[in-house]
Amino acid sequence: MSSKPSQNNPDKQPESKSTLDEIRATRLEKVEQLKQEGLNPYAYKWESSHCAAQLQETYADLAAGEEVDVAVSIAGRITARRVFGKLAFFGLQDESGTIQLYLEKKRIQANMEEISNAFNLLKKVTDVGDILGVKGTIKRTEKGELSIYVSEYAMLTKSLLPLPDKWHGLTDTEKRYRQRYVDLIVNPSVRETFRRRAKITAAIRRYLDDRGFIEIETPVLQGEAGGADARPFVTYHNTLQMDLYLRIATELHLKRLIIGGFEKVFELGRIFRNEGVSTKHNPEFTSIEIYQAYADYQDMMVLTESLITYAAQEVLDTLKVSYQDVEIDLTPPWRRVTMHELVREVTGLDFGAYQSFLQAEEAAKGAGIEIPDNCKTIGVLLNEAFEQKVEETLIQPTFVLDYPKEISPLTKPHRSKTGLVERFELFIFGRETANSFSELTDPVDQRERLELQAAKKAAGDLEAQGVDEDFLAALEYGMPPTGGLGIGIDRLVMILTNSPSIRDVIAFPLLKNTSAVIQSFDYDPEKKILKVEFGNGSIYKYNDVPAEVYEEMKTTPSLGQFFNSRVREKYGFDREK
Fold first, then answer.
1. Of 65, 70, 81, 82, nearest to 1 (Cα)?
2. From edge to edge, which strands make up the β-sheet containing 234-237?
3. Does pLDDT of 167 surpass 50?
4. Do 513 and 525 meet the contact criterion of CB atoms below 8 Å apart?
5. Which run of H or E residues covers position 357?
6. Rounded distance, CA 161 to CA 28, Å?
7. Whose CA is closest to 523, among 543, 552, 556, 550?
8. Is the pLDDT of residue 341 over 80?
9. How far is residue 219's CA from residue 413's CA, in Å, rounded to a whole number?
10. What residues contact residue 204 under an 8 Å CB cut-off, 6+ apart?
11. pLDDT tens track for 253-271
12. pLDDT tens by residue, 1-34
């Protein structure tokens, strides 16, 4: 039978101009209709014999108008729906792709005699978004559309909310991130991004496993945050009555494993840093840290290059990647150049030639470099010049070598360059993608550096960390020469999937809870009532709040944190709106 529709207009979808509440109410009525027919609108199971992509590939050469009498069963979500009296065409999408359903009244009635008016029921109770299971044979319509010629169907899940309009889709970026489940349904390219991410991490693990590295999980909750300069998230353990930190790095525990006798270890997992959100930063992100005994940062450079090129070749089958309309050539060898050389190339400043900080500062200002208040040494100034003037120019893969000692508290001093350490960072498209050290193994030197960090923390530096006494004790038992490497998985995936924002490669990125965001607040000193309006329009009045709490609330750098810890659970409230 031809797929050409009759002259009758397709059955209209009345919900298109309805409100969301009306649509949901209508669909709930359809749930009841299914139940009245003795059918379960939320099935327990379905056995599929094929997936959509498999059928499309197997019968790619089937001629128009031909039918293959082979039994198939498949399940998926209805993505399109056209009904013409005794004939209907549905689009069905499963994880692999889409295929058309060819639904004919006579055929369905003949095979589903136990349900009165099975075809008419199908027309009445189905909507775009429902999950349907079907059985039938394969047919290519006269218009050339490969279809399943349906003999039986089963409602597997009745959807209550509509999918976005097929012509406009889910285009609001914020909504896409908040409702990732809808984003995945209507944007197949998003599903492909996360498939590719999974293949990238699998390839990385496979590469390391084949070379004798083992993955060992380390604590997420830690008594002392360490291994990086970053502001940690703080929580509290009720039983132990102590503050704990979500880890900002896996470094110090993986080094303990090297001390304990493992020679090649790594962990690929989540890291948490209480910092800003941007297209390049998410407070919760994924990194891999790798440690190899009896190696240095030169060895880790070779490992970084070979590991990333292996993953790219395995997943993309090419080392030339198009990212934001720029071709990134991952073909080794990658450029290796010192921070001093790069700064001199871009700015003309030679920080190795200055005899004093004041001399270097004056030259830096002349080159348009902004000097932050905490910049007090030539090494820190060199790094400022690099970050402000050089980073964004490093488009092709570039290893930047030999960093100032002041900004690398866990790194071995350079064996031939005073004031520098054996460290490199890998930059691709102007972004730090990997970081590596010849790891510091001298426990006396390490203590001095950590105590300097602790002094900065005591002075108010939120990104400086304290002294991890247990780690220092471990170092005193002796750590072999070790090379360490960290790679930002999210940023690597961004490059290999041509994703402009880090939120595009994190399935569920951290977003503001709009209902909990404080829009405004006011205080009645006579009644001691704190009035708070939230982002969702709700207004609460908190009673018996001291005036000093209100004054602190006006000046706190983190309003949400202050409110949650000092107000929300401590004072009674009445809801005004």
1. 65
2. 221-222, 242-246, 234-237
3. no
4. no
5. helix 357-366
6. 10
7. 550
8. yes
9. 29
10. 268, 288, 307, 311, 489
11. 999 999 999 999 999 999 9
12. 444 444 444 554 545 556 888 999 999 999 999 9
Within 8 A by CB and 6+ apart from 342, the residues are 386, 390, 394, 400
**Is residue 318 packed enough to be buried (19+ CB in 10 Å), middle (13-18) or exposed (0-12)?**
exposed
Distance (Å, whole) CA 321 – CA 327: 6
Cβ atoms 81, 126 nearer than 8 A:
yes
DSSP-derived secondary structure letter, 262: -
Amino acid in position 222: Q
Q: Which two tokens stand for residue 259?
A: 């001390």
Tokens (6 digits) for 576: 């005004």
Burial 242-265 (b: 16+ CB within 10 A, else e): eebbbbbbbbbbbbbbbbeebbbb
Q: What is the mean pLDDT of the chain?
A: 92
Q: What pLDDT was estimated at residue 11? A: 53
Model pLDDT, residue 453? 85
* Neighbouring C-beta atoms of residue 29, cutoff 10 Å: 10
Q: Percent helix, strand, coil in the chain (nearest 5)?
A: 35, 25, 40
Rounded to whole angstroms, the Cα distance separating 82 from 571 reads: 57
Give, as one character, the DSSP assignment of residue 439.
Answer: B
Q: Residue 8's pLDDT is what?
A: 47
Residue 102 amino acid letter: Y
Q: Which two tokens stand for residue 273?
A: 């840093």
What's the pLDDT at 277? 83
